[in-house]
Amino acid sequence: MLVVLANNLPPAVRGRMKLWFVEPRPNVFVSGVKDAVADYVVKYLYKFCPAHAGVMIFRSISRPPWYEIRTIGYTSKDLTRLSNLQLVVETLKN
């Protein structure tokens, strides 16, 4: 499974993403593509997304912890590692 969250994708990239993914909300893409297609999509995103696109990629993998998270550019959420797990930092607002 591959989930892509973006702040601002270029129109050409967003249109291409709609070939492989369901877009339940604007700039949120979800797909159950095979590993080879997922590799292609991730390489495509790294090649054509500028830093201001703010892309976060969640991908299922075949080894523990069974997922990986990658980012492209400046995202609104930070990543951290805890006991070798990648986690998204969520700040609480009072």
Strand and helix layout:
Blueprint lengths: L1 E5 L4 H10 L1 E4 L2 E4 L3 H14 L6 E6 L6 E6 L5 E5 L2 E5 L5
Antiparallel strand pairs: 1-3, 1-4, 2-3, 4-5, 6-7
What count of structural domains? 1
Give the class-level CATH name: Alpha Beta
Helix and strand string, N-terminal first?
EHEEHEEEE
In CATH, the topology is named Alpha-Beta Plaits
Shape: globular
How confident is the prediction overall: mean pLDDT? 91
Distance between the termini: 34 Å
> How would a crystallographer describe the biggest sheet?
5 strands, antiparallel
Beta-strand content estimate: 35-45%
Fraction of residues in helix: 25-40%
| Poorly predicted sequence stretches spanning 5 or more consecutive residues | none
- CATH architectural arrangement: 2-Layer Sandwich
> What structural class is derived from the secondary structure elements?
alpha+beta
CA radius of gyration:
13 Å
Description:
There is one protein chain. The chain is about 25% helix and about 35% strand. With about 90 residues, it is of the alpha+beta class. It has a single domain, classed as Alpha-Beta Plaits (2-Layer Sandwich), CATH 3.30.70.240. The strands form two sheets. A five-stranded antiparallel beta sheet has the order 2-3-1-4-5, covered by helices on one side. A two-stranded antiparallel ribbon has the order 6-7. Strand 6 and strand 7 form a beta hairpin. The longest helix has 14 residues. The protein is globular, with a radius of gyration of 13 Å. The chain starts with a strand and ends in a 5-residue tail after the last strand.
